[in-house]
């Protein structure tokens, strides 16, 4: 990560350079011209993590440059983070530094915010936390109207709740999500909303067919897309994400989605009738009429079996966080499918990382 100050005036040029680099990687596949979805040039990241560096009775936020990993870089202003985080950082630091019970051996502070203004702060210590710490932390939480979690080795104290509530605005509607501490969420909320809107537009309305979603997380795409299909069959391996997804389905009155806690590889095997699983005992897989599949895999992309499996469906929406593994997978998928749309979503401004969206339909 670079620690040089952000220059919003440079962002359009940097984005163009990144788009050109990513687009060039796919030239051999002759994809359609990419639709570009930029980020806000400042205050775009909803999460931030800082080490705490103590100097006598005072401390400051710090990060470490990989080029000099033992030298703390003092962070007094962090415009990468959401405005909610930036506004809280200094008043929170002062409040914590005023009480030894809150600042002694404080090691790290993690912020998790939302577009809707909710905030969760995790205070991580190199010491055991006690009742006195909890009373003091509760006062700080009340003062700033935030959620606080205290952590130390083998200890987690949740003062009220260990999640934030997001209200994600997509196409004139707000979708509610519990986003848990430690669970995966999209870091750039505004760009995430653009990604969801793009996927909705690609899918259209399908009242007689079903959607299969692999790597569904906390239901980020599942919930907005559920109304586009008769039913949704979704899978996710993370226990935290599955818990959040079930809660999020209930909050958004989504009743036509089934969430399975199992790997995409296992669900693929079950749908191919290669193996049976106890957790599928009450799920009638044969009753699904799946014609669309949405995949949002980790950086490793799709495994060979899943890639071969999804090639059997009429339509594929592929969300990727790694152009290299996306290119590898598209080399195979474009043998059976045609790429109709290609989009680039700049989740991580000022870095080389780029999120991609590809919409494919079965060749005639």
TrEMBL record:
Class in the EC hierarchy, top level: transferase
Catalytic activity: uridine(54) in tRNA + S-adenosyl-L-methionine = 5-methyluridine(54) in tRNA + S-adenosyl-L-homocysteine + H(+); uridine(341) in tmRNA + S-adenosyl-L-methionine = 5-methyluridine(341) in tmRNA + S-adenosyl-L-homocysteine + H(+)
Name of a matching Pfam family: tRNA_U5-meth_tr
Keywords: Methyltransferase, S-adenosyl-L-methionine, Transferase, tRNA processing
EC number(s) on file: 2.1.1.35
Coiled coil: none
Positions that bind S-adenosyl-L-methionine: 186, 215, 220, 236, 296
InterPro entries: MeTrfase_TrmA_AS, MeTrfase_TrmA_CS, SAM-dependent_MTases_sf, TrmA_MeTrfase, U5_MeTrfase_fam
Family annotation (CDD domains): AdoMet_MTases (cd02440)
Active site, renumbered: 321 (nucleophile), 321, 355 (proton acceptor)
Xref: NCBIfam families: trmA_only (TIGR02143)
Role noted for this protein: Dual-specificity methyltransferase that catalyzes the formation of 5-methyluridine at position 54 (m5U54) in all tRNAs, and that of position 341 (m5U341) in tmRNA (transfer-mRNA).
Family according to the record: Belongs to the class I-like SAM-binding methyltransferase superfamily. RNA M5U methyltransferase family. TrmA subfamily.
Protein name per its UniProtKB record: tRNA/tmRNA (uracil-C(5))-methyltransferase
Organism: Zhongshania borealis
Gene that encodes the chain: trmA
